[in-house]
Amino acid sequence: MNIVETSLDLPCDSFTISDDEVTARIEAMHIQECNTYYCSDYLKLEFESSPDEECIFQPEIISKKVDAPYREKISKWCFEIADFCQIDHETVGIAMSYLDRFLSTESGIPVLRNRKKYQQATVTTLYIAVKVFEREVIEPRQFAIISRGRCTESDITDMEMIILSALKWRVQPPTSISFVRHFLALLTSFGGIGRSVVNNLSVLSQLQTEIAVNDYYFVTVKPSQIAVASILNSIDGMPDKSFSKSVRCAFIQTLKKHGIICPLGREMKEAQDRLLVGFAEIGAIEDDQDQFQRDMLCGLACARQEELGIAT
Q1: What topology does CATH give the domain 3-32+174-308?
Q2: Which partner from 145, 169, 180, 213 sits 20 to 30 angstroms from 188, CA to CA?
Q3: CB count, 10 Å around CB of 70?
Q4: In the chain, what are the domain boundaries?
């Protein structure tokens, strides 16, 4: 049994944990993401459902439905609220998991067809996630004020029970950033990887997981796959002297050994490309922290765009 000195909550003080325990946690989260917390392609199902005559002859009703671009807009709004209220970005990802899974249920269908109700559901899922995971709770009254008239305090409390009931009170989803932490903990067991390199990989990978939260494409992609795609992209963006090819190969072989994901499969490559294209579209980053590493990944993303024939 190897003992790894690592942190599963970067950046925090490190603690000692065995790689067997890390693997056990990963496997447990993998079971969750494949079963309890799996989310269907609810927009496709809604689109394929037979439209009634009212929608056919009144296009304005269709325009009120939620689509992928509108979901992205709302998700980005949640991150803005998180920054304003000092909420952890992972909490936003959890809130969007609540929202997506709720919309996959029968109770979520009316919300999916009404953008005002969708806004109310979004605020409510963010409220639930904050209440469950943040140290400081933000009351429904405060969220009502933050929403700027999108919903009232009673709207939030009423919607809360509807959502929790539809989710069967399953509010502990495995997140892609949580998988990133555990995969990076496994990575450190190979030795020869500096703490700063691991921290840089964590920063770059987390940025990509946030891109995945905004992009509806990733709703049906397992968080573990998003995490590995993010890490592999980050590794490719690091200088060769920081991360040897042998260590990268050893990391991939470890993932294949445990049978959790297929790091070299077509789906993984598609996820990597999608994340890189999304990263390139972000544009310049104002924050100078880790700017060098971010620039490397942006360069890699732009190069991949050219390879795919996508105009920047």
Answers
A1: Cyclin A; domain 1 (1.10.472)
A2: 213
A3: 16
A4: 3-32+174-308, 40-166
